[in-house]
Amino acid sequence: MRHWLLLLRTLVLRPLRADPLRSALTVASIALGVGVVIAIELAGRAATGSFQNSLAAILGPTDLEIVANGGVDEKLMAALTALPLNARFAPVMEAVIQVEGLGYVTLYGIDTIASADTYVKTDAAATLDNCPQIALAKDLAERWGRHVKDRVRIFNRQFCVAQIVDARNGGFIGMDIAEAQRGLQRYGQLDHIDVTVDPSESLQAVENAVRRVLPAAYEITRPGARSRENQRMLRAFRWNLQVLSYVSLVVGAFLIYNTVAVSVVRRRAEIGILRALGAARQGIFWLFLGEALLLGLTGSLLGLLLGRLLASAMVQLISQTINALYTTSRPAAIEFTGPTAVLGLAAGLLAALVSAFGPAREAMQVAPTEAMSRGSREHRSRLAVRRHAFFALLAAVAAALVSQVPPIDGRPIGGYAATLLSIVATAFLAPLVVLRATAWLRRPLERVFGVGAFLGARSLAASLGRTSVVVAALATAIAMMFSMGVLVGSFRETVLVWLGQQLRADLYLRAAGPAATGAFPPLPAGIEAALRTLPQIDALDVFAAFDFRYGPDRATLGGADFDIIRRFGRMRLLPGQERDAILRSLPGHDNVLLSEPFANKHGLHRGDAIHLALGPRQVTMRVAGVYYEYSSERGFVIMDRGTLRKYLPDQPVTNIGIYLKPGLDQNQAQRAIETALSRFPVSIARNQQLRAGAVEIFDRTFAVTYAMELIAVIVAMLGAANSLLALVLDRRREIGVLRYLGASSSQIRNMILTEAGLLGLLAMLLGLALGLVLSVLLIYILNKQSFGWTIQFHPPYVVLAGALLLIWLVTVLAGLYPARVARRLNPIQVVHEE
Amino acid sequence: MASLELRHVSKIYSTGDQQLAALRDVSLTCRPGVVTAFLGRSGCGKSTLLNLAGAMDFPTAGEVLIDGVSTTACTDAQLTTLRRGRIGFVFQFFQLLPTLTALENVELPLLLANTPAPRAIARERLQWVGLADRGSAYPHQLSGGQMQRVAVARALSQSPAILIADEPTGNLDTASGEQVLQLIRRAATEFGASVLMATHSLEAAAIADVRIHLRDGHIESHS
Fold first, then answer.
1. Complex ipTM above 0.95?
2. CATH topology of domain B32-56+75-222
3. Using CA atoms, how far apart are residues A685 and A670, in angstroms rounded to an integer?
4. How far is A734 from chain B (nearest CA, A)?
5. Do A733 and B95 touch (CB under 8 A)?
C-alpha cells in the first residue's frame, strides 16, 4: 500500500503539480458540474419540502382524512360524531391566504373548543376577551415579529395571538373554524375532516363505518396524501431539472477524458520505461485511473461546497416556478445531508472513472518498447474516422427509434435516451467533421490569415484524437444551450400568441392579493350583481374555479360562461375540433372541456367519458373538446357555470373578465368601476398588465434553466482553454522547430488563435446540428410527455445568433493564454529537450 | 565576404549562483561553399556554437556577424527574417513536423517566409534529395535516413547562405549516414552554402573542408 502511495505521489501527483493550470481547469470543470447537480438536488428538495403537513402540531396525529371536491358538507359532522366509535372527528378549513407584511401563509381553521386539549394551552387566551384568537407557528411568529397577546390583521379584521406553536415544518396560522369560514366566505363547508382513532379501535373498522355514512363521491385518505400528491405532481418538474443538471457533468466528463488522454499521450515514453522496469499492465491502468479519480475527488469535494452555495441562490427561483406552475409552497430550509454528499461524490467520481477508462486502457496497452510517434498515433485515429462515423450513424438510428417509445411511469425515458444517443452520435461524428472541415478551410484560411492559420487548421486535423473530444464537449454544451433557447423561445412565443387569444376581456377582476396556483380565493358575494348594474359593462365572463382531485392527481375544475366565451373570447381548440359547435354544446349539458395538459396526462380525448367527484356525487360527463392552455401544468376541467351550479350550488365566483362597451375610454371606465367596487377587497388588472405579468412569471420560471445552461457553457469554455493549452504543451517541440524554420512569434500566435477559432467554429456547427435535433426532442417529445403542452416551433434567431457569436468570441479569447505560452517557449530548450 | 563570422564569442549560462561557460572567446570565419565540422565531446560547446551561428541565441560577449550584420543588434523580427532567408537547420532527431507530409515539411519554411511558388520549390528540393516519390508520405511512414533527407531538403528550401547541421548522422545507420553526408557536401557545392556541422563521427568530419576541435568551450585545434 505504502509503495502504491509512493508511486501515486511520484507518477500522478507530481505531473499534476507540474501542470497546475491545466489541473486546476479540469478540477474546476468537475467542481462546476458536481456543484450544479448538488445545487439542484438541494434546492429542489428545499423548494418542495414545505408540503409537509404541519396540522399535526395543533391537532395531534391523525389517522384518516375525509375529503371531497368542492368541499365537505359541514352537516356531515353530526352523522360522524354520532357513530359509536372510539374516534375523534376534527373539522378543518385549510387555505393559503395572503397576509399583509407576511406574504402567503397556510391557514388552518379548526374547532378550537373540541380541540382545546391540543390547541390553546396557555392561560393567555383567557385574558384576550372579545378578540378572536389565533395560534401562530413559531418560525412564522419570529419572521413576523409577533408574540402572545399581540394584535394582528387578517381578512381585514383584528385577531389576537393566543399561542405560539412549536411546529417543525411550520409556517401557519391557526384559528377557529367559524372565523376561517367567515374570512374565506365558505359557510357550511369544510376542506377536510381529520379522524383520530383510539388505539383500542381497529382502523379498518372505523374506516368501514365512516365510509357507510359518507356520500359516494367523498374520499377517505391517509394523512400525508396531499403532500404525496404534490410531490408526485412535481416529480416530472424535478426530474427534468435533475436530468438537466447532469449536462454540465457530462461536459466535464469529456474534459476529464481529454486531460487523461493528453496525459497518456505525453507520457508514453515514461509508460514504456515503467513497463520495462517491471510495472504490470494493471498497475499502469490504475495509475491513470488514479489520476482521474484524484481530479474527480478534488473536483467533487469543491463541487459539494459550490453546490451548497448555489442551492441558496436557486431555491428561491425553483420555488417561484413551483408557485407559478403548480401549487403554493414556501421553501423549507436547505438540508445538506450525508446522502446528498454521497450523491455528489459518486456523480463526480463516476464521471471521472467512466471518462478515464478509455485512455487508461490505452496506457495499459503501451508496450515496453513503445516508440510510436504522435504522427502514427494520429494517423491511426484518422483511420478510425470511418468506423466512428459508422458508430455515429448507428447511435443516430437508435436515437430515432427510442425517441418513439411512449413515457414509462410518466417519465419520458425514451426521450432522454434519444438525447443521450444524439450526444453520443455527435461525439462519434466529430472526428469526421474536424477532418473534412479543416481540409476545406485550411487553404482559404491561409489566403486570408497567412501560414499561421494554415498550420493551425492543419494542426487541429493532425491532433484529431484530442481535437474531436474538445469539439464534442463544446458542441454538447452549445447544443444544450441552443436547444433550451429554442424550447424557451418557442414556448414563450406560443404562450404570447395564446395569451393574445385567451385574454380578450378589457379588465380582469379577482380577490385582492397576488394570484397563486392552486389557490382560488373567492370574490366577495354580491360583486357580480354590483358589476351588472354598471353602465360601462358590455359583458361579464364569470369564472368559478377550485382545486379538485382527479384520481391520484390534483387539477383545477372551473365553471365558465360559455355563451360569453363563444361570443367574445377566442378560446383555441385542438385541430379538427369545431369551436362554435363545441362551445354551444356545453351550457345545459354534462359536457366538459379539458385543457391539453390534463387530456394528455390522463389519456382523455374528445368524446370520451370522464368521471368526476362533485361534492357528494359521482358524475359522468362527456369530453366535448380539448383546448390549448399554458397557464398551469396541473390542467383544467371546465364546464358551463350552470352545470357546475347544478352539482355544487355554493361554489363561489373566483374571477371575472369584464368586457367594456365599445368606444369607452379604458382609463375612465376602469376608474369608474374601481370607484363602484371600492367597498370590495378586489384587484382589477388590465388586459396588458395581466399579459405582462404572465410573461414575467414565464421568464422567471426559466431563469434556473438558463443558469444551468450557462454553467455548462462555462465548463466547456474551461475545457477549450484547457485543451488548447494541452495542444500547445504537447507540441512544444514542433513549435520550437517552427521558430528554427523562421516562424515569427506573431505567426505562432496566429496559429494557436486559428486553432481556437476553428475549434469554436466546428463546435458551433456540430452544436447547431445537435441543438436542432435536441430542440425537436425537447419540444415534441420530452416536453410533451412530461408536461403535455403543444409548443409551436419558434426559435429566437437573433438571441441565439448573438449567444453563439459570444461563445465563439470567448472560445477565441480562451486561446489567448495558450498562444502567449506558445510564443514564449524557448525554442533551443524545447527542441533539445530529449 | 564571409557568410558568418564569430568574433571573440563567449557564452555563459547562469544557473543560480553558478556560472557555466559553454563557449570562451571563440573566433572563426565561415565562407560560402565551405564545410566546417566541429568536433569534440558532449558538452564541449558544439551545439551552443551552432545556436549562436543560427541566430537562435545571443552571445554573452563578442559578436556573431551574419552577412556582416551583428545578431546582437537585431530585433526579434529581424532575426526571424534572417533565419527565414539565410539559415537552414538540420537536427540530429530530424525534427520533422509529424502532422505534415514530407512535401509539406519542405514547403513549410517557404510558406513562413511567404515565398512565391512554394510547392514547386519544395518538389524540386525533394527531387534533389532523391525523394520525389515520397512527397505525400508522413514522417512516421519514412525510414530514419529518408526523414533526414527530407530535413536536408527542408533546410535547403530557401537556398540558405548558412546550413547548420547538428549531429546529422548521429541517429542513422552507416549507409543512410553516408547518403546524408553526401547531400550536405553537395549543398555546399551546389547551393554555395557555408555548412557548419557538429559531429562525433570521423566519417562525417571527413567530408569537411575545415575541422575545428572544441574542448571545454574553446577552440583546441583547427585543421
1. no
2. Rossmann fold (3.40.50)
3. 9
4. 6
5. yes
